[in-house]
Design goal:
Blueprint (H helix, E strand, L loop, with lengths): L1 H6 L9 H33 L2 H5 L13 H6 L5 H29 L8 H10 L7 H10 L17 H13 L2 H9 L4 H12 L1 H17 L2 H6 L8 H10 L1 H10 L3 H4 L9 H32 L6
Length: 310
């Protein structure tokens, strides 16, 4: 009977002309928005693989012209690139781990009514989201703490992140209090409740904080600019910053370090300022883009917790 009903044209939902127009307009608008978001990455990618003389003149817009991989081969030969990659990976992993652990613990502790003056400390932390002393006092503080030309200068300033603490606190407050009460009845202390009860439960928000922190650490270059003069501590993003601002000198460096065969190469594969910018941008951006999809399912769930009350 149900099968017959499903085949009956009378049971089909009729869509009005207005609904069809709205659906078509919605698809068009969202497709246009997706194109605007994705095209810059696509543009950089195709220009990094296209003939450099065409790319320099803005002739590569929608597809690759004169495919070659010499740009990537030459950029990989630039001195200090792989050391900068190691520093960026190290600061991203270590900095993210410290930030996530601190945000989770403080977010949990600020929900504990037994914490002495917890509201006062919480307000102090939140206030730092809106007020800061500025770059010069910050630099003086870092120098007095011997964190200039020091790898830990990348880590310690980001350990206490107020926004992430607020996210974790909001998530912990959404967890049923009966879980903690049951653990307390069984004799569990604060640290045991945090490590064995809360950490497994709040994994979605931890993943959200982790992706936020990892992206910030990976993309940061201003702290290198202000704190570091030792090129052994340069990050990949700072090297990218140098390449973009000094693309002409980089072009000379790459071409001068090439072999005699490369020196006689055609104009299509000779390095240009544009090819350097495009290629290095792809090299720097690709790792964080590849990591993001693994956290996306946690990201959406974690960021929405606490957004709706009741």
């Amino acid at each position: 009977m149900s099968a017959k009903l499903s085949k009956n044209p009378k049971n089909k939902v009729r869509v009005s002309l207005e609904d069809r127009i709205i659906s078509i307009a919605s698809y068009f608008i969202y497709s246009l928005f997706a194109f605007v978001c994705l095209y810059p990455f696509y543009y950089i990618f195709i220009n990094s693989l296209s003939a450099n003389d065409l790319s320099e003149r803005g002739k590569v817009l929608f597809w690759i012209k004169g495919l070659h991989f010499k740009n990537y081969v030459d950029v990989m030969k630039v001195p200090g690139l792989f050391n900068a990659l190691k520093i960026s990976v190290a600061r991203t992993l270590v900095g993210t781990a410290f930030t996530v652990i601190t945000a989770a613990f403080l977010g949990f502790m600020f929900t504990q009514e037994t914490l002495w003056k917890r509201k006062l400390w919480y307000r102090f932390v939140v206030a730092t989201m809106y007020f800061n002393a500025g770059i010069i006092p910050w630099y003086i503080t870092m120098r007095n703490l011997n964190l200039t030309n020091n790898f830990w200068g990348y880590i310690f300033p980001t350990v206490v992140a107020p926004f992430y603490i607020v996210l974790c606190k909001t998530y912990v407050e959404s967890v049923p209090k009966e879980l903690q009460q049951a653990a307390e009845i069984d004799g569990a202390g604060t640290m045991r409740i945090f490590l064995q009860i809360m950490l497994p439960v709040i994994q979605p928000i931890l993943a959200t904080v982790a992706i936020f922190s990892a992206v910030n650490q990976w993309n940061s270059f201003q702290d290198t600019l202000l704190l570091v003069t030792d090129n052994k501590l340069y990050t990949l993003q700072f090297v990218l910053y140098q390449y973009i601002t000094q693309a002409s000198s980089l072009k000379a460096l790459v071409n001068s370090s090439s072999t005699s065969t490369s020196l006689a190469a055609s104009l299509a594969t000779a390095q240009t300022a544009t090819s350097i910018r495009m290629t290095v941008t792809i090299v720097v951006v690709t790792p964080i883009i590849l990591v993001y999809p693994f956290f996306q399912r946690f990201f959406i769930k974690g960021i929405m917790i606490g957004a709706v009350k009741g």
